[in-house]
Design goal:
By secondary structure, this protein is mainly alpha-helical. Helices cover about 65% and strands about 5% of the residues. It contains 9 helices and 2 strands. The protein has helices at about 1-25, 30-35, 40-50, 55-65, 70-75, 100-120, 125-135, 140-160, 160-170; strands at about 85-90, 90-95. Helix 1 (about 1-25) packs across helix 3. The relative contact order is 0.12.
C-alpha cells in the first residue's frame, strides 16, 4: 500500500509543479492537461509495481523487462515527449520538429522532475545535466534540440525566474 500512496503523491506533486511552471510560461492548456494519462490504469499499474520514490518507475520496469508498457502508453499520448514526434519514412525513422508549445512543456517537465527527484540536491543545473545525460539515446529534431539546449543552459546560467521571463518575452509559441 505504501507504493500506491507514494506513487500517487509523486505523480500528483509532479503534475502540480509542471502545471505551475506552464502557467508561468503562459501555457495554460498544457498546465491543466499535463500527464493526465499517468492516472490511467495501464500507467498506474506500472507506477504502483515499480515505484521507488527517487526516480521514475518506468526506469525500473525497463531494467527488469527491457521495455515498459506504461511508457509505451504514456509517450503515445503526451506531445511533450520527443518520442511522440518520431515517425517512419522511406529513409527510416525520422524526428519531426516539436511545436514550440510542447517543447516548452517538455522544459517545464524536465525542471519539475529534477526538482522532485533531486529534492534538496536540486540546482538550476540539474535539468541540464539530465538532458545532456540522455543525449546519446535521444532522437530529436535539430531545431527542437537547439531550443531545449538553449533553455536548459539559460536556466543553469540565469536561474528559473529569469528563464521564465526569457520564455515569456522572447520565445514565440
Amino acid at each position: 500500500m505504501n507504493k500506491v500512496i507514494g506513487h500517487l503523491k509523486t505523480i500528483t506533486k509532479h503534475k502540480l509543479k509542471v502545471g505551475k511552471l506552464c502557467f508561468r510560461c503562459h501555457l495554460y492548456k498544457q498546465g491543466l492537461l499535463h500527464d493526465l494519462s499517468k492516472y490511467s490504469y495501464s500507467e498506474l499499474k506500472t507506477g504502483f509495481k515499480y515505484y521507488q520514490g527517487y526516480r521514475s518507475p518506468i526506469d525500473k520496469e525497463k531494467e527488469e523487462k527491457g521495455y515498459s508498457m506504461g511508457w509505451m502508453h504514456h509517450k503515445g499520448r503526451n506531445k511533450h515527449h520527443w518520442e511522440y514526434w518520431l515517425d517512419n519514412s522511406p529513409d527510416g525513422v525520422i524526428a519531426l520538429r516539436m511545436p514550440t508549445r510542447y517543447a516548452l512543456e517538455m522544459f517545464c517537465d524536465g525542471v519539475a522532475a529534477s526538482m522532485i527527484y533531486k529534492g534538496s540536491d536540486y540546482t538550476d543545473r540539474s535539468p541540464l545535466e539530465y538532458f545532456e545525460g540522455g543525449r546519446k539515446v535521444r532522437m530529436m529534431h535539430r531545431k527542437t534540440d537547439e531550443l531545449l539546449t538553449h533553455l536548459f543552459n539559460y536556466l543553469a546560467d540565469n536561474g528559473l525566474d529569469k528563464t521564465i521571463e526569457h520564455i515569456v518575452k522572447d520565445i514565440r509559441i
